[in-house]
Each structure stands twice: as structure tokens, then as C-alpha cells.
Amino acid sequence: MHVLFLGNGFDLYHGLKTSYKDFLLILQNITEFNNAISRFIDNKNTQDNDSHIFDEIFLDESIEGSSAHKIYELLKDNSWANYYANCNADIQGWIDFENEMLPAIKLMKEVFCKDVRMVWCTEDDWEASISFDSYKERAMMLLWPEFFDERDEYSFLIRNSYFDANYGILKAKIIKKMEDDLDDFITAFTLYLKEFVERRNIEKYKWINDINPNRIISFNYTSTERNYFEKISDSSCSHIHGSTFYKNIVFGTDLIDDDDSDFVNFSKRFQRLFKVGDCSYLDYLTESDDFASITDANHYESLTVSFIGCSLDKNDSSIFRSYIEKADKINVYCYGFSGYKSAMGNLINIFGHDKIRDYLHCNENGVKLNFIDIKNLSINDDTTIICAREYYKDSNK
Asked: What pTM was estimated for this model as a whole?
């Protein structure tokens, strides 16, 4: 049995614009994006000043303006789009991008607990404001103009549509707006992937074709793996975080408590069950036992687990941990020395130094954990397992 895990690095390796930075560029230039696509559709060419947009997305003559315009309409006044376009967070990958949702949620919880100062401007008109001492919180408030307007250096007005003189801050209305905007944000992202990413033709690598897995577990929203493994049925390929095909993309954070009923819709765990509901990947380990039980008594059916483009971050360890622990052989495909170093560090963080040392130790069955550098491979190249000592020496030349 061979189970293959795929992460966003798999799409990036094939030149697909699926990093958070690619979509962030659209968020930060949403009006220019819409205008540039319209010009392209009208003229079938681009202007020089459109290059910063078109360098990041895929265009051909079959692009439909309706999709681009719908993305624009979904994002132009979207509170989450504004937040991510302007938060200037130190984001390294999609997990960081999603987890940056948490500070916004914490801010709203703080807002809901604040004392509101009401000032009657006229007999029929009033202002409701809240104050913050922290510079960080004040900076965060500026990212939510839908709900708040800066009054002075320390206080913000609550927009009238989200405040009632009798009931105070309309907490449920604010959360509902955030939920609706997140749904629109995800819809726009799905359209972006389908229209400007998945239509691109990719070159196929021999070493990937040679893997020949029995089951695939993908953290990706796209179905790039279909270019290689056409014989893998839907029941043998599990998209943990949803897919563009089923329009059930999961976008949230794992850092929200399960008992947080107010913000449960922003929880990745909740969305995974609510939107995807596909837990078939849990059966693959059982199936590996079944494979072994039906083979000849003198033949052991081993379990190989491979990772391509996966960060192996602790946030996703609940998905792959049991596979690594049970596997007879683990192949981690790394993109260069930095990828090797990151994967090694994350695995040690999850399993501990002693267990990873044991995995790297050669026993009667060979080495359990292998790292393979794929950075400089051409289309027809085969892979070579990294020898840590030689690899580290070469990387420091």
C-alpha cells in the first residue's frame, strides 16, 4: 500500500499560482484586476501597466469576463478582503494566512466586552464610541471600516447600523456580516482557482509518474494530481480541505476552541465536517491492514507514505501523524535545502528528537525516513535520496 500526501508545494512545483501571495496580489489590486481583465477580453492583449497583474495569473482567449467581474463584485467591499489586503502580517504560507484570522476574531471579542460611550449630538442623533489604549488594537480597528470609524487617536465610532441605543453593540449582526463576507471571500477564491489557475497546462515529471500510489490525501483545493493519476478513483483520493470541483473549500483557523459557539463558522475543524464530511482517509490505514491480511502468509504488504509539497506543520499533524507512525517507509520530497531543513524541524517538533533519530537509523528493513531533493530535477530525471552529511556539506559550499 502506498499513500501519497500532497500539499500546496505540489501545485507551486508545477508553476501554478496557488500561494497566498498570488491571491493577495488580487486583493490588493482588485479594481486594477477587474479593469485589466476587461481590457484583455476586449482587445485580446495587455497594456504595459497591467504587467504586475498578468505576471501572476494565467490568461488565454477563453477567459470569461463574467468570472473576473464576479470576483471583483465579491471582493470590492468585502471586509475580509480589506483585512487581508492591509493587515501587513508576517505570513509565510497558507496556514499563517488562515491563522491571521484569529487576531481579528479576538479583536471582535474585545469589542463586544467594551464599555460603550454614547453622546447625543441632537435630540434624534447620537454617537456610540469605544476606546483602546493599545496601539496594536487601534491599528487593527482601522482594518474594519465596515463596522467602525476612527473618531480620534484612541476611540472609534460604532457605525449606526451595528449599534442600537437600547441593545448596545449588535453582536449577532456583526458576526453574521463577517460570516457572509467569508463565504463571498471563499467563493471569489474558488473562482480565481478555477478560472486563472486550473486551466493552465502543466508539464508532467517522470519521477511523479513513477510513484504510482494506491491512495491520495490532498491538502490542496485543486485537482492537479489528476494530470498524473487518472486511474485513482474519487473514493481513493481525499481532499481534506475541500475542492474547487465540489465548491466546498475550507478556509478557517484551527485555533478557535470547539466550544466557541459565536465564531464556530470560522473554525477549520467545523468547516471540514460541515462542508466536506469526507473522512475516507481514516479508512486508508485500515485498508493497508486488509492488504496485508489477504496476501501470502510469507509476504508482508508494507505501507509506504510519501509527501510532496507538504509543510508537515504541526497544525496538520492530526491528519498524517498515524500514517507516519505506522509506515514502514516514509519519503519526504523537499524543495532544496531550505525545504529539507524545514521538514526535518517540523517532524522533530511533532514526534520528538528520539523518534526521528530512530526513523533515520538503518535497521533490518532499511531506513524508515528518507528525504529527497526535487528542486533541480528536469522532466525526465529520477530522484536520489538525500545523504544528510553530504547534502549539508554541499549546501554550505
From this structure: 0.85
